């Protein structure tokens, strides 16, 4: 633990099978540690963290003061016991969290691995593996450390890996050993291997490795293509051997994981500031009272010296004032009692249990409940503004299914009428015994077309069975296992298999299929490989009859340009089909073929051979050759594949967007795939004004593209402002001027301004989206570019970052935290998301198929992305609301309690005398007022959970931090000070002249103390009853029980019995009985209570009537519906599927322009790999014949292209016209189903049911619902218009005169008009009032 850290490495030297040599470099072991503490460091480190809380330091200081008898009027145990309790509870919680981290680390470190030691394989724990060891990996095993691949059971040292833990991609990748080590398959050969590797030091670059292998006086270059990284899984490879280069914390996985951070909520940070302020206020009060003490002792106190002398240490009035100051600091410290922090921890614990117990967040399929893995961040769930999400496994299931297709102008796979009978899943087994039983398809017309021998259909599926790079393994007769490099290809080949065109096997020169039960072997003449520039792949085959044909599949944007002119009519029809598929978020490919004559083939083959042998510009020459042959093709049709989204993803994203939460997708996938998923989950829609693609390769180009996008957004927003009335926010009036700004850094060609004012960019309508590639993002994250990127990206409704590394994900999160000061949430399911999860304010882990690394690093976990909606809008909003109400009330009641001592100081000669009995002071925060506020903090709610989901705008107060901030704090303490003034001066004024019925005066200290204490408890109990919005049995028991407990304890403590036992401890004997029997005392208490409470009631009634909040309006509409509900009046429609649901169709009208749905998760190089034969087990004769004709340079080509490829952006739909919104000109196009209240203002108000109205109906109600003639509908018109205009569309609200800084209140005129119209007409109709859909 105390070992000296080695100096930073400049290069790493590793010698195989030589532990002694490698140990002298002190390389890290393979043991990982994600925990924060150990047995030795736990106590000091944890206490240090806890005393970073200002309040804990404050209480420690008070404890020290209370240990000084000359200034302490309260016992020291009143502070040390609660402080020790708080520290202990927090320490136990932190220890428990860290124990689970230790447990996880132990599970990983104790995994078994086969290590080659002294010529034999021995089982070793992962943590005992050392740099320089040779490890054997078997199929489906995790890679234990970063290894140099030495040899493999596959030909030519190949192996296949899955890198989902690293980059989120589940498609297989190929790795190959250096040729000189690929033959070391035997253990004896490997045991004698003594090569030395010199390479770069540990770093976090996942896609780069530079090194050299020195062996037998020769050196061999090493690259990333030779490396197996920790976290990868070996697939489709029987076994392989690797040399450990980096271990444990030095591995690239751990270098990208980031450190565990101590997270605090914004409320915690605010409370730290407030505690400092309160301490300053406390010091001021102490100074005032100390000055008063000095003056009093000098002017008046000397008169009492004869019979009330100073204590021995005090010899003058200044020293007396000094001691008085510290005494008052102790007495008045209850303005921030330590019970506040105990209560906060208890409330947070309760909220965490509510999340754990929520059955609506329980996934029955995988038997996984939601889990709050921390208790300190619950209220921050109600303040999230930015969500950063992984794609694969988080938004999608990463399961591809063949969904639809278009063949010769006929579309297949269309969904049936949802109201009609549902079609049955097709059974392919009677037709095709080789069919995949797991394949799902429902349109029987396609199967019939295949059966009757339709020529076009047969050609279509023949192409799918031939044009691919899939490998087939037939374990037994008819049991086929396809090894697809991408799930897309696997889905297409499986579809062809089920429709009678079964791919059986391949050799480097042949493809064998079974077509309609007949075995057919094609000669494979050439594979025209796929890459990101070509966006297509082709094969040239010769059939058994000698005919040569080219089959091609690829993006419609590139393939349709290469068709023969005779295909124009078919191309138009197919384009419409592609348009529909893309609109449904499906991944599309177009298919075409071309018949070749023997002469054409021979001529092209010669050109191809010469291009393949070119010494320079080989790739460009090959691409040009491919371009020549892929012309004048005949269109066959198109395919549409669905990358299955997780259940409820589109609805969840729609609801979160309406809650003003911006969602960014950070994925390692390629651009086309990520964009397609963006459309599938409705982050991107064809109704968006424009989708900007940032793909520059230099800082200058990225800056230019970002500025162009920003300029375009401002220009289009201004244009729309000029055309549409009712849209609030004239940008010309918000500080923007036509010629404002100057170009930066001498970029004279750029006439766009520097980043415009934030208020201008914030007012841009969110109808834009931004897509940025990883290489562009690397430039955008540079220090001088961050402001450019943030100002552009944050003005967009959706942002998608493609090809990003795990570290870049964390950097993006940190950038938003730094520049926007907003609460961020990161959600992911793989190890590649860990650094992002740790960087965000809140980390959420999806317990999916990519391991549990993300869950272990997270603060909250569940199994489905859709649960995020309930976590934030229900649990998060309630937690924030409850915590804010709790804090407001807590500060109020303690200022009301403590400030009485301040006023009393002016009447007791500033002698630090307390008003109340010392036992009342001790029990006030622990017993009398603790349980009611705890019940409110744990159970309170303003609207039910269903309403929180129906009205996402209810979430905005948390984002704007409206419910507890410095202003609200000052209001609370002002109310508390007002209450203390009333509680002190009203009893003081009345009791000073009051007498008992016997004529005995009531103006004594103990009577005053009992009266004031009783009035205080009653006032704060009534106040919390007013503050509680949701009453449970527990609330009633705690509120009224605490009041009864006060009287019981007070009477017991002031009884003769206790006084007889402890005469020195209980001085208020009989005071309660004698005081509470006096009618004037009860009248005094009643008057003080009325003076305290009536202004609060009046203010709240006026506030609800004049300036109601959205929650007030929602509660009112709910009350109306409950009163008017009738059992027969159930609304039609299924269970609520989320506001803005788009699962049943598209929102609004589609634009005329078309976007490509092309997305193909494929990697270049597999074509050459297949034709080289290196991934196939061939007989020695066949291998010898084949090897003489083919180059072995495929891996070099793959390497070069991997580093030099670029992503060409797909065509965007920036020209599509926005769909009409339900409130004209008030909301952006995506929001045209932004509320269940949003619809025609003439539409009837539907009645409340257990499930909310169907949002599909809601989104189209403005066009489908005719005006209702019923009087009840007219009566509710005003309410419907108010809700339509104000609840979810602040722009429309403010245009009616209800201006509000937060944009979520309703104007006085609109509310009063609605209420008056409703009251005047509701009684005139027997029809129930219904809530507008």
TrEMBL record:
Enzyme class: translocase
Residues given in the record as Mg(2+) binding sites: 390, 392, 829, 833
Subcellular location: Membrane
GO molecular function, one term: ATP hydrolysis activity
Any one Gene Ontology cellular component term annotated for this protein: trans-Golgi network
Swiss-Prot/TrEMBL GO biological process terms: Golgi organization; phospholipid translocation
Membrane-spanning segments: 74-92, 274-296, 316-342, 886-907, 919-939, 969-992, 1007-1026, 1038-1061, 1081-1102
InterPro entries found in the cross-reference section: ATPase_P-typ_cyto_dom_N (IPR023299), ATPase_P-typ_P_site (IPR018303), ATPase_P-typ_TM_dom_sf (IPR023298), ATPase_P-typ_transduc_dom_A_sf (IPR008250), HAD-like_sf (IPR036412), HAD_sf (IPR023214), P-type_ATPase_IV (IPR006539), P-type_ATPase_N (IPR032631)
Binding site for ATP: 390-392, 489, 530, 553, 587, 667-669, 803, 809, 832-833
Annotated ranges, domain P-type ATPase C-terminal: 855-1108
Active site per database record: 390
Listed NCBIfam families: ATPase-Plipid (TIGR01652), ATPase_P-type (TIGR01494)
Family stated for the protein in its record: Belongs to the cation transport ATPase (P-type) (TC 3.A.3) family. Type IV subfamily.
Stated name of the protein: Phospholipid-transporting ATPase
Lineage summary: Eukaryota, Metazoa, Chordata, Craniata, Vertebrata
């Amino acid at each position: 633990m105390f070992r000296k850290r080695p100096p930073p490495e400049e290069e790493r030297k590793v010698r195989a099978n030589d532990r002694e040599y490698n140990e002298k470099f002190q390389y890290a072991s393979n043991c990982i540690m994600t925990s924060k503490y150990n047995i030795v460091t736990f106590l000091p480190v944890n206490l240090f963290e806890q005393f970073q809380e200002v309040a804990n330091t404050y209480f420690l200081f008070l404890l020290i003061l209370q240990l000084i008898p000359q200034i302490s009027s309260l016992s020291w145990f009143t502070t040390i016991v609660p402080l020790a309790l708080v520290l202990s509870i927090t320490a136990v919680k932190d220890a428990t969290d860290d124990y689970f981290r230790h447990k996880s680390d132990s599970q990983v470190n104790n995994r078994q691995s086969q290590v080659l030691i002294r010529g034999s394989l021995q089982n070793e724990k992962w943590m005992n593996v050392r740099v320089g060891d040779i490890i054997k990996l078997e199929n489906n095993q995790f890679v234990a450390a970063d290894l140099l691949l030495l040899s493999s059971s596959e030909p030519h040292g190949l192996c296949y890996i899955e890198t989902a833990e690293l980059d989120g991609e589940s498609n297989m990748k190929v790795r190959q050993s250096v040729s000189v080590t690929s033959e070391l398959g035997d253990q004896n050969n490997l045991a004698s291997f003594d090569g030395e590797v010199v390479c770069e030091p540990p770093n976090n670059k996942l896609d780069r490795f530079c090194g050299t292998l020195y062996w037998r006086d020769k050196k061999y270059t090493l690259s990333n293509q030779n490396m197996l990284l920790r976290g990868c899984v070996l697939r489709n490879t029987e076994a392989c051997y690797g040399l450990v280069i980096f271990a444990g914390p030095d591995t690239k996985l751990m270098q990208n994981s980031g450190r565990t951070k101590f997270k605090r909520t914004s409320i915690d940070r605010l409370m730290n500031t407030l505690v400092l302020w309160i301490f300053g206020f406390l010091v001021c009060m102490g100074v005032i009272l100390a000055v008063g003490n000095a003056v009093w002792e000098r002017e008046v106190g000397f008169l009492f010296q004869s019979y009330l002398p100073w204590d021995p240490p005090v010899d003058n009035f200044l020293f007396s004032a000094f001691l008085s100051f510290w005494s008052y600091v102790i007495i008045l410290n209850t303005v921030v009692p330590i019970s506040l922090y105990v209560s906060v921890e208890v409330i947070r614990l309760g909220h965490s249990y509510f999340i754990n117990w929520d059955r609506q967040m329980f996934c029955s399929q995988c038997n996984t409940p939601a889990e709050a893995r921390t208790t300190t961040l619950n209220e921050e769930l109600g303040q999230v503004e930015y969500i950063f999400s992984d794609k694969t496994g988080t938004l999608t299931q990463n399961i591809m299914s063949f969904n639809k297709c278009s063949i010769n102008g006929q579309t297949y796979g269309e969904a049936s009428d949802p109201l009609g009978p549902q079609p049955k899943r097709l059974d392919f087994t009677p037709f095709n015994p080789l069919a995949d039983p797991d394949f799902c398809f429902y349109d029987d017309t396609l199967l019939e077309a295949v059966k009757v021998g339709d020529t076009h259909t047969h050609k279509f599926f023949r192409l799918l069975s031939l044009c691919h790079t899939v490998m087939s393994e037939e374990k037994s007769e008819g049991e086929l296992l396809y090894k697809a490099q991408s799930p897309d290809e696997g889905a297409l080949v499986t579809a062809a298999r089920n429709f009678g065109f079964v791919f059986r096997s391949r050799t480097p020169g042949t493809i064998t299929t079974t077509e309609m039960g007949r075995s057919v072997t094609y000669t494979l003449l050439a594979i025209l490989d796929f890459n990101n520039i070509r966006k297509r792949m082709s094969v040239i085959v010769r059939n058994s009859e000698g005919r040569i044909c080219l089959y091609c599949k690829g993006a419609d944007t590139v393939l349709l340009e290469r068709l023969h002119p005779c295909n124009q009519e078919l191309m138009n029809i197919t384009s419409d089909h592609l348009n529909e598929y893309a609109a449904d978020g499906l991944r599309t490919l177009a298919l075409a073929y071309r018949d070749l004559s023997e002469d054409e083939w021979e001529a092209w083959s010669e050109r191809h051979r010469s291009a393949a042998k070119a010494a320079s510009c080989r790739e460009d020459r090959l691409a040009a050759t491919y371009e020549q042959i892929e012309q004048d093709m005949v269109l066959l049709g198109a395919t549409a594949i669905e990358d299955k989204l997780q259940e409820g993803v589109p609805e969840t994203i729609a609801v979160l967007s309406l809650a003003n939460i911006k969602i960014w997708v950070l994925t390692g996938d390629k651009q086309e795939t990520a964009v397609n998923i963006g459309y599938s989950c409705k982050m991107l829609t064809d109704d968006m004004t424009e989708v900007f693609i940032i793909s520059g390769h230099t800082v200058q180009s990225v800056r230019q593209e970002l500025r162009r996008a920003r300029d375009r957004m401002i220009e289009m927003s201004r244009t729309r402002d000029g055309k549409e009335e009712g849209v609030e926010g004239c940008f010309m009036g918000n500080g923007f001027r036509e010629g404002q700004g100057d170009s930066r850094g001498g970029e004279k060609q750029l006439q766009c301004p520097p980043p415009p004012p934030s208020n201008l960019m914030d007012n841009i309508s969110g109808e834009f989206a931004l897509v940025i590639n990883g290489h562009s993002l690397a430039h955008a994250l540079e220090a001088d570019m961050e402001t450019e990127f943030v100002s552009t990206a944050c003005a967009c409704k959706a942002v998608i970052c493609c090809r990003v590394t795990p570290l870049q994900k964390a950097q993006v999160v940190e950038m938003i935290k730094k520049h926007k000061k907003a609460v961020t949430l990161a959600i992911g399911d793989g190890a590649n998301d860990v650094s992002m999860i740790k960087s965000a304010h809140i980390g959420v882990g999806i317990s999916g198929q990519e391991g549990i690394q993300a869950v272990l690093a997270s603060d909250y976990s569940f199994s489905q992305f859709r649960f995020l909606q309930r976590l934030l809008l229900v649990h998060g909003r309630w937690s924030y609301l409850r915590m804010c109400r709790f804090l407001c009330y807590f500060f109020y009641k303690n200022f009301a309690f403590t400030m009485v001592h301040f006023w009393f100081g002016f009447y007791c000669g500033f002698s630090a005398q307390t008003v109340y009995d010392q036992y009342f002071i001790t029990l006030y925060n622990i017993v009398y007022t603790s349980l009611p506020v705890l019940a409110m903090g744990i159970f309170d709610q303003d609207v039910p959970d269903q309403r929180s989901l129906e009205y996402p705008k209810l979430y905005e107060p948390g984002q704007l931090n409206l419910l507890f901030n410095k202003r609200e704090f000052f209001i609370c303490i002002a109310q508390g000070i007002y209450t203390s003034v009333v509680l002190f001066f009203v009893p003081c004024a009345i009791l000073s002249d009051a007498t008992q019925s016997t004529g005995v005066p009531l103006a004594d200290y103990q009577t005053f103390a009992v009266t004031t204490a009783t009035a205080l408890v009653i006032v704060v109990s009534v106040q919390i009853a007013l503050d509680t919005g949701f009453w449970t049995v527990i609330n009633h028991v705690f509120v009224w029980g605490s009041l009864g407990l006060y009287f019981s304890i007070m009477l017991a403590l002031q009884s003769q019995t206790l006084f007889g036992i402890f005469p020195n401890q209980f001085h208020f004997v009989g005071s309660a009985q004698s005081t509470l029997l006096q009618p004037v005392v009860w009248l005094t208490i009643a008057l003080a209570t009325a003076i305290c409470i009536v202004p609060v009631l009046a203010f709240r009634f006026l506030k609800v009537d004049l300036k109601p909040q959205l929650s007030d309006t929602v509660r009112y509409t709910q009350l109306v519906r409950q009163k008017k509900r009738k059992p027969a009046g159930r609304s039609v429609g299924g269970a609520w599927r989320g506001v803005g649901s788009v699962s049943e169709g598209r929102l609004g009208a589609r634009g005329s322009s078309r976007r490509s749905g092309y997305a193909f998760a494929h990697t270049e190089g597999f074509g050459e790999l297949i034709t080289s034969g290196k991934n196939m087990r061939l007989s020695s004769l066949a291998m010898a014949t084949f090897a003489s004709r083919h180059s072995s340079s495929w891996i070099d080509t793959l390497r070069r292209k991997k580093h030099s490829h670029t992503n060409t952006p797909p065509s965007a739909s920036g020209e599509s016209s926005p769909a009409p919104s339900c409130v004209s000109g008030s909301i952006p196009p995506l929001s045209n189903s932004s509320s269940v209240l949003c619809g025609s203002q003439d539409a009837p108000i539907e009645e409340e049911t257990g499930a909310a109205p169907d949002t599909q109906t809601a989104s189209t109600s403005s066009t489908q619902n005719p005006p209702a003639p019923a009087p009840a509908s007219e009566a509710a018109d005003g309410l419907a218009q108010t809700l339509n205009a104000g609840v979810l569309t602040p722009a429309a609200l403010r245009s009616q005169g209800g201006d509000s800084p937060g944009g979520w209140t309703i104007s006085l005129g609109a509310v009063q008009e609605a209420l008056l119209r409703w009251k005047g007409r509701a009684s005139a109709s027997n029809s129930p009032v219904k809530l507008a859909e």
